[in-house]
Design a protein that fits this description.
The chain has one helix at residues 70-121; strands at 18-24, 27-37, 41-48, 53-60. The protein is an alpha+beta fold. A hairpin with a 4-residue loop joins strand 3 and strand 4. The model is unreliable at 6-14 (pLDDT under 50).
């Protein structure tokens, strides 16, 4: 049996059994959680519509959680933080690379100017 998530917008989805709103790095994200079951197992799926991320956990036989959807939402929050921090790190690393490149170019220009001055002195 294949489980397909319905198209979800940032608004309340009628099939969501649990909804959370979290703020990560100043961005507000919505987390929607669903339950599902098959003949031999059951599980939870959480979805973040803003980032398009999904986390799915399958449970077998006598497995249970003290609080519904905790594990799946924890996993999804981890993925969201990694993606948002990754975007921040990419931008930060790009700025560092641009500063290094500007310093190399400035040093190269300075070396060329020194060489021109030395060539004039000969």
């Amino acid at each position: 049996m294949s489980y397909l998530l319905p198209r979800v917008t940032a608004t309340v989805h009628p099939a969501a059994e649990r909804e959370d709103v979290e703020t990560i790095n100043g961005k507000t994200i919505h987390l929607l959680a669903y339950g599902w079951s098959t003949r031999r197992s059951w599980g939870h799926t959480a979805y973040c519509p803003e980032l398009g991320l999904t986390n799915k956990i399958r449970y077998y036989n006598r497995t249970w959680e003290a609080h519904r959807f905790d594990s799946v939402i924890h996993g999804l929050l981890y993925k969201c933080r990694m993606q948002l921090d990754g975007d921040f790190r990419k931008a930060e690393n790009k700025a560092v690379r641009e500063r290094r490149k500007a310093r190399r170019e400035a040093a190269k220009r300075e070396a060329e100017e020194r060489q021109q001055v030395l060539n004039l002195g000969i």
